[in-house]
Design goal:
Number of helices: 2
Number of domains: 1
Structural class: alpha+beta
Radius of gyration: 22 Å
Strand order of the largest sheet: 1-2
Order of helices and strands: EEHHEEEE
Strand content: 5-15%
Largest sheet: 2 strands, antiparallel
Number of strands: 6
Helix content: 10-25%
């Protein structure tokens, strides 16, 4: 037969590492859920606002290498957007630009590559 699954068989899915928002405390064994979403949890980690265990009070410590790169990048972009930082429109530059306090127009010139970048 071919590689097509029959009605009784399910297709095999590749094993992926699952990164959840539920953590088991190493001290007391209590299962904590410090954030509702994975993105919010990574934003809390990057800003240094990880909450303690609800049972024993021990602070959680994440290992940065265990967090998926795409999730880290997305969380960093959201934190930058909240702080008023945008990136240069030039794909070769991608320098971080801070928005002025009172922008006159919706454009900002990158000091490194001199490209105009629009912002909302």
């Amino acid at each position: 037969m071919g590689n097509n699954p029959t009605d009784n068989q399910e297709t095999e899915r590749p094993a992926e590492s699952v990164w959840t928002t539920v953590f088991k405390c190493k001290r007391c064994g209590y299962r904590n859920r410090p954030a509702r979403t994975r993105l919010y949890l990574v934003k809390m980690y990057l800003s240094g606002q990880m909450p303690p265990c609800r049972n024993c009070g021990r602070t959680f410590h994440l290992i940065r290498s265990t967090i998926p790169v795409s999730l880290l990048r997305q969380a960093e972009e959201e934190i930058d957007r909240e702080r008023g930082i945008i990136r240069c429109a030039n794909p070769g530059c991608r320098k971080k630009l801070k928005l002025p306090a009172a922008p006159a127009r919706g454009k900002l010139r990158c000091p490194a590559c001199k490209i105009l970048t629009r912002f909302p």
